[in-house]
Amino acid sequence: MLMSRCCPLMAIVPVSLFLTASFFVLFTLAKVVDKKLKLLGYLAVGFLWLAALVILSGAVSNLSQGFTGLRCSMPQKMQRCGMMQMMQQNNAPEMATSGKVTTTK
Q1: What domain count does the chain have?
Q2: DSSP 3-state helix, strand, coil percentages of the chain (rounded to 5)?
Q3: How many CB atoms lie within 10 A of CB 66?
């Protein structure tokens, strides 16, 4: 139970790496004089912040939806999506005639 709850919390590692890299890019941009290089640096920082935001929002979403991790078996996932009912409805005619085997030549 504990492992399934902390898996979305592992997103802290890449988020902190992206934010640390953006800090160092901003730190070096303070010493840069060329405007084109500054623009490139600010674009890189923007993409790093965007990536950190996407990863963090995905982790928050997983936590709020009750992330189940690898312990959730396939039938449980299929029941959650409503796929079991669809499979049962689609296989109902085949299951009724499964006792008779007919071959044609």
Answers
A1: 1
A2: 80, 0, 20
A3: 9
pLDDT of residue 102: 59
In a domain, 51, yes or no: yes
What distance in Å separates the CA atoms of residue 14 and residue 1, rounded to the nearest whole number? 23
pTM for the whole structure: 0.57
88 occurs within a structural domain: no
Number of neighbours of residue 18 by Cβ within 10 angstroms: 21
Residue 11 in domain: yes
Q: Which two tokens stand for residue 101?
A: 């085997």
Q: Under 8 Å CB-to-CB from 70, ≥6 apart: which residues?
A: 4
Residues whose CB falls within 8 Å of the CB of residue 28, separated by 6 or more in sequence, listed in order: 41
Residues spanned by the domain of 37: 2-81
Q: How far is it, in rounded angstroms, from Cα 58 to Cα 49?
A: 14
Q: For the segment 23-61, what is each residue's pLDDT rounded down to a tens digit? A: 999 999 999 999 999 999 999 999 999 999 999 998 888
